[in-house]
Amino acid sequence: MLPCARWLQPALVFFSSALLTWGGNCPPSCLCPDPHTVDCSGQGLTRLPDSIPLDVRRLLLSNNWIPRIPSDFLVLYSDLVYLDLRNNSLSQIEPGTLSTSSRLVFLDLGSNNLTEISKGTFGESRSLIKLRLGSNPYLSRVSKDAFQGLTSLRELELERNALSGLQVGALSQLPSLRLVRLEGNPWVCNCNFANLFTWLMENRHKLPNGDLECSLPMDGRTVALSQLSQESFRKCQETLTLTDLLIIIFSGISVSVAAIMASFFLASTVHCFQRWSKGSKGDDEESEE
Ligand SMILES: *[C@@H]1O[C@H](CO)[C@@H](O)[C@H](O)[C@H]1NC(C)=O
Ligand SMILES: *[C@@H]1O[C@H](CO)[C@@H](O)[C@H](O)[C@H]1NC(C)=O
């Protein structure tokens, strides 16, 4: 028994120390400047490193080629407060990746390949304060409810994307918003832009870079928003009035047609009835003879 125990003891020590170093140590090719920070930026990673410590709070993954983050990522790393995924190859964020219980305060998804921000993408993450979504050159659709439930969000970056329009609800639903970056998008100042224009004029102080530019639908000319006024969008209301007018005219026509048809039906019924009563009288006269 003695030789066996003598052999077992170092083995146990070896395995436990191996486990400890494996669990507490940095993933290969990453730096861990303090116990809660893992810095894997600029390492040419094509996927998330395997052995990230579970208690990581700051995870820096910028300047890599990471194409996706698994939807259970923030369940696993539930202490994560700061996540930098800038300049990667993400094309979408799977719904459920972020959730209400997430502690994330800072999320950088800038300079990726996102195309759409749909409803519930951020799972009503109530801790989120800063969200960076700029420089996604194919990002052309942002749902009206994309940022729903982000009650603490103060800073939202949507600059240098491919947005030609944005439903105003996406911004007006954010109660804590202090700063929004929207410059460098191919905005089109058509009638769909009218509501956003009104919001932007009322919330000018939230735009750090001042003026935005948009192209006019008539001739594609680019103008600064400050050159436009509510007056510029009055034509949209005129278009509405024209539609209203058309509806009125058409409903007028339908009412007249209905009236004509009703009177025709009534007239025919009366006529039929008269003929029938005449006919039956004739029968009576015939039978009397
Ligand atoms: C983005 O990441 C790639 C790969 O690491 C790097 O070569 C490039 O310089 C980065 N771009 C920016 C703007 O940081
Ligand atoms: C980015 O997305 C666009 C459109 O979905 C696609 O055509 C392009 O190849 C993607 N680029 C990269 C680097 O993944």
Automatic annotation (TrEMBL):
Residues 185-237 form the LRRCT domain. SMART domains: LRR_TYP, LRRCT, LRRNT. Gene3D superfamilies: Ribonuclease Inhibitor (3.80.10.10). GO terms for molecular function: potassium channel activator activity; transmembrane transporter binding; voltage-gated potassium channel activity. SUPFAM superfamilies: L domain-like (SSF52058). Its main location: membrane. Keywords: Cell membrane, Disulfide bond, Ion channel, Ion transport, Leucine-rich repeat, Membrane, Repeat, Signal, Transmembrane, Transmembrane helix, Transport. GO terms for cellular component: voltage-gated potassium channel complex. It holds the Pfam family LRR_8. Residues 1-23 form the signal peptide. It is a single-pass membrane protein. The keyword Membrane applies. The chain crosses the membrane at residues 245-267. It is found in: Cell membrane. InterPro entries: Cys-rich_flank_reg_C (IPR000483), KCNMA1_auxiliary (IPR051432), Leu-rich_rpt (IPR001611), Leu-rich_rpt_typical-subtyp (IPR003591), LRR_dom_sf (IPR032675), LRRNT (IPR000372). Residues 25-58 form the LRRNT domain. Interacts with KCNMA1. PANTHER family: GH08155P (PTHR46473), LEUCINE-RICH REPEAT-CONTAINING PROTEIN 38 (PTHR46473:SF4). This is Leucine rich repeat containing 38b. It comes from Scleropages formosus (Asian bonytongue).
